[in-house]
Amino acid sequence: MQALAGNLAFDIDGPQRDAVLGIHRMVEGIQLMVDRVLDLVEVPEQK
Q1: What dihedral do alpha carbons 6, 11, 14, 17 form, nearest 10°?
Q2: DSSP-derived secondary structure for the chain
Q3: Exposure winner among 9, 13, 22, 24, fewest CB in 10 A?
Q4: Distance separating alpha carbons of residues 42 and 16, to the nearest angstrom
Q5: At what angle do helices 15-40 and 2-11 cross, to 10 degrees?
Q6: Taxonomically, which superkingdom (predicted)?
Q7: CA-to-CA distance for 23 and 18, rounded, in angstroms?
Q8: What is the pTM of this model?
Q9: Quick check: 5 and 27 in contact, CB under 8 A?
Q10: Res. 43: pLDDT tops 80
Q11: Are 12 and 24 in contact (CB under 8 A)?
Q12: pLDDT per residue over 1-39, tens digit each?
C-alpha cells in the first residue's frame, strides 16, 4: 500500500497529489502504531 501510494504521488499533480501523500503518511503512522502494539503484546506460542 505504501509503495503504491508513494509511486502514485509522483504520477499526479495538484490537490490529488496532496491527498495521496496524506494517505501515505497516515498509512505509515498506522503501521508504526501496529508495530509498537505488537512489540508490547506477548503473542502466545502456537503448538
Answers
A1: -20
A2: -HHHHHHHHHH--THHHHHHHHHHHHHHHHHHHHHHHHHHSPPPPP-
A3: 13
A4: 40
A5: 160
A6: Bacteria
A7: 9
A8: 0.64
A9: yes
A10: no
A11: no
A12: 667 766 776 788 889 888 888 888 998 999 999 999 999
The three cell numbers of residue 7 are 509511486
C-alpha cell at 39: 512489540
CA distance 9 to 23: 10
Q: What is the pLDDT of residue 30?
A: 95
**Dihedral (Cα; 40, 25, 2, 6), 10-degree rounding:** -160
Map grid coordinates 506477548 to a residue. Answer: 42
With the C-alpha atoms ordered 30, 33, 39, 42, is the resulting torsion angle positive or negative?
A: negative
